[in-house]
Amino acid sequence: MSRMKTFYLETFGCQMNVVDSEQIVGIARQLDYVLVDSPDRADLIVLNTCTIRARAERKVYGHLGRFKPLKQQRPSLIVAVCGCVAQQEGRRMLEKTPHLDIVCGTHNLHLFADMLRRVQTRRERCAEVSFLDAGQRRRLFPERLPSDEVTRFVTVIQGCDNFCTYCIVPHVRGREVSRPSAEVLEEVRALMRQGVREITLVGQNVNSYGCKEGDEISFAALLRQINAVEGLERIRFMTSHPKDLSDELVACFGELEKLCKHIHLPVQAGANSVLRAMRRGYSREQYLDRIARLRQVCPEIRVTSDVIVGFPGETGADFEQTMDLLRQVRYAEIYTFLYSARPGTAAAELPDDTPATLKQERFDRMLALQEEITGNYHESDVGRVLPVLVEGSSRQGSGQLFGRTTWNRIVNFDGDAALIGHVVPVRLVRAFRNSHLGELA
Ligand code: SAH
Ligand code: SF4
Ligand code: F3S
Asked: Where, subcellularly, is it found (predicted)?
């Protein structure tokens, strides 16, 4: 019998890549590769990449550089790049990186097995980066491996049509294509039978689900159907675009008992002039109105956000408007990014005369403000007893269990492993930056 082949996989970027990486694992397993946790002795190395900011892209080339000596030692090693940098760079990447064998774009995972065989049998280096269209929907939503986890992502929509002026995603992920609702439900039911208790519906903009000609139902209608799946405990979704947050969807937070009281609703900026230049499709006032409506139907809902600091032309006054919005909304958490010009995007052409040091200063001030707001939430939660869905044993190896509150906050506590997969009441006893310590109540 031949020796088992090994493969090493590293995943960068967002929820879309996490799902794609599961598929990569499935493909490699079918070709008799076993997953290992170090690239040093692997027969196949796969990087599933992200190019959302320049730094993410640079990181990929940094990682690839590390594999060059490995390839020199073992010329049979196969090095592959998948995901958004692969899509952005295409064949050019093979020219730039002589020890790279495979460039597999975001719509091309169905060709990955064949590409591997081409390299294995003919040492043929290959790049595949064509986009599929809605007619080839099945390939965009392939079958999944069974799961032994309590929580799981389920893709409902691929691509993005929004073309926010700073963003490369529509260029590397193609046009929006929704998955048929029957297929989504079928997958949710199958996951349920495997023991999954919480699902997160994912897409770059889930609120566009079902909005195109030929689609059947709205995202809110899909949520209602999933809410009716027996045995499922919780539903989340990610990411929502504020301009497409319909009244019907807002109402779901008041009606669907399984829908968690958390929404990630990235605002990006607080000044109307900047929102316009970003082509976000909503004003500050409209955004605040949607937050108010969410809190009206679901007073306990917690909101998180993404914010970009230093968009071209952002003035000091614009920045203060974002700071003011953060104080007004009181997000439970925000993810702050320094603007990064991306090739092919409209904003990359805009003049940008704000010095980097000033942007950094604004960035630091924003972090400090949010730290205070987030800290307040976490401190005032201490003492409360909350339902926690137990997901598994703590990653710190402390012998504890961990789970999440409806707000997606991690809680570590002592308990029996038999509780995994169940919702239990936990009293929060101490707040840390990234988690709470709790005790079974
Ligand atoms: N689809 C999601 C976001 C996807 S990208 C949405 O529309 O909200 C995740 C986050 O990265 C974005 O919300 C934005 O804050 C940030 N981002 C995207 N492009 C960026 C860029 N060029 N520079 C800095 N941050 C960026
Ligand atoms: Fe990018 Fe905007 Fe699409 Fe989000 S909605 S992925 S920020 S273009
Ligand atoms: Fe990155 Fe691609 Fe996601 S650019 S954020 S991995 S869609």
From this structure: Cytoplasm
Q: Which atom of ligand 2 is nearest to the CA of 173?
A: 6
- Segments forming the whole domain that contains residue 371: 266-282+296-381
Residues 396 and 373 in one domain: no
What CA–CA distance (Å, rounded) separates 253 from 257?
8
Q: Which pLDDT score is estimated for 144?
A: 81
What pLDDT does residue 269 have? 98
* Cβ–ligand 2 contact at 266 (below 6 Å): no
Helix/strand/coil percentages in the chain, nearest 5: 40, 20, 40
Confidence of residue 88 (pLDDT cuts 50, 70, 90): very high
Residue 269 CB less than 6 A away from ligand 1: no
Cβ atoms 78, 125 nearer than 8 A? no
Whether 320 and 371 share a structural domain: yes
- Binding site membership of 167 for ligand 2 (Cβ less than 6 Å): yes
- Is the CB of 306 inside a 6 Å radius of any atom of ligand 1? yes
Would the annotation count 104 as a binding residue? Answer: no
Tell me what the pLDDT averaged over the chain comes to.
Answer: 96
Contact between residue 20 and residue 48 where contact means Cβ atoms under 8 Å apart: yes
Please indicate, yes or no, whether residues 254 and 140 belong to a single structural domain of this protein: yes
Ligand 3 surroundings by CB, under 6 angstroms: 13-14, 16-17, 50-52, 83-84, 169, 172-173
* ∠ Cα 173 169 103 (to 5°): 50
